[in-house]
User: Which sequence fits this backbone?
């Protein structure tokens, strides 16, 4: 009797386990941390990606977006995906610059300053980007650009002399270097703290997109906006390959198709918002102006220094990316 009881209990337990793993298989849930808030186009793109997967994966996979660093903070997202704490996530590529020079390329100024060039640079750098991610057992799902990066300040900027000694916000290793070369002091401030950093004088100026200025209502703390169009950085969404490989082929394909659609949407939005958000800044009282010839030539000079520095760090694989970019 005792034996039977034990056996029945065991059977019952294995039925439970089977049931649990069958239902786990039937509805895998992926948590997807993203760094930026719901007001940004990046999170809108991420949400449409997840919605497409959720609608087409027929209940086999659900992706849940956790925006604005709510599940995992921006500096931790890359590691969380790598260590399989989460299956996928989104980061600003340039932040990872110290891990691999290919990530630095994303923030090099005056290399690709309009959307057509930025798309070509992306295509030229994609093999190296995929390779860098593959080394960490990660796969790229899609990228989504920000509008070109412009200069925010609290006085007119005719030349770099007007910025000399100011505290400049940086958001990546490359932008810290840029701040040095501009004769300013870099201060690393996450997007979420930008408004406060200006109001407490922790920073005096920043280079970022018109979208980020709109999202953070920069007219409350900024008077001047100079359209230097320095570079077009990207966010990327990537997954852990071991987790991805566990999905059946149809579900994998669903993800890849949704990712390709998200990428199209992100690039189209980046182009569109570059114009719309610059208008919004002006409508809210910020003085928007084109850079002077002097400022532009000083900045382009810094750009060529930074390309050279990048090439000496990235070596022959970096050279190959730039050649592919420059070959028509
Ligand atoms: N906005 C983000 C990254 C680039 C951009 O345009 C930020 O300022 O953090």
Assistant:
């Amino acid at each position: 009797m005792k034996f039977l009881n034990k056996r029945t209990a065991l059977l019952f337990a294995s039925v439970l386990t089977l049931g649990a793993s069958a239902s786990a298989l039937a509805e895998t849930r992926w948590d997807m941390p993203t760094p930026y808030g719901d007001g940004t186009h990046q999170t809108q793109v991420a949400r449409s990606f997840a919605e497409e997967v959720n609608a087409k994966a027929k209940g086999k996979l659900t992706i849940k977006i956790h925006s604005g660093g709510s599940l995992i903070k921006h500096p931790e997202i890359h590691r969380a995906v790598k260590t399989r704490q989460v299956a996928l996530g989104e980061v600003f590529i340039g932040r990872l610059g110290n891990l691999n020079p290919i990530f630095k390329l994303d923030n090099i100024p005056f290399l690709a300053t309009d959307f057509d060039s930025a798309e070509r640079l992306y295509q030229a750098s994609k093999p190296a980007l995929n390779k860098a991610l593959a080394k960490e057992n990660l796969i790229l799902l899609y990228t989504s650009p920000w509008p070109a990066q412009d200069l925010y300040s609290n006085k007119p900027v005719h030349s770099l002399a007007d910025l000399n000694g100011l505290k400049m916000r940086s958001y990546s290793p490359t932008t810290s270097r840029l701040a040095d070369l501009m004769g300013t002091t870099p201060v690393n401030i996450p997007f979420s703290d930008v408004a406060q950093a200006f109001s407490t004088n922790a920073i005096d100026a920043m280079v970022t997109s018109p979208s980020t200025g709109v999202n953070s209502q920069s007219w409350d703390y900024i008077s001047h906006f100079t359209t230097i169009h320095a570079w077009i950085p990207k966010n990327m969404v990537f997954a852990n390959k071991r987790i991805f490989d566990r999905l059946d082929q149809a579900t994998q394909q669903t993800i890849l198709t949704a990712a390709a659609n998200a990428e199209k949407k992100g690039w189209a939005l980046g182009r569109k918002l570059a114009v719309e958000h610059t208008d919004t800044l002006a409508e809210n009282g910020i003085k928007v102006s084109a850079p002077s010839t002097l400022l532009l030539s000083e900045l382009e000079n810094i750009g060529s220094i930074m390309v050279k520095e990048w090439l000496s760090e990235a070596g022959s694989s970096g050279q190959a990316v730039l050649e592919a970019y420059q070959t028509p």
Observations:
- Confidence is low (pLDDT under 50) at residues 6-24.
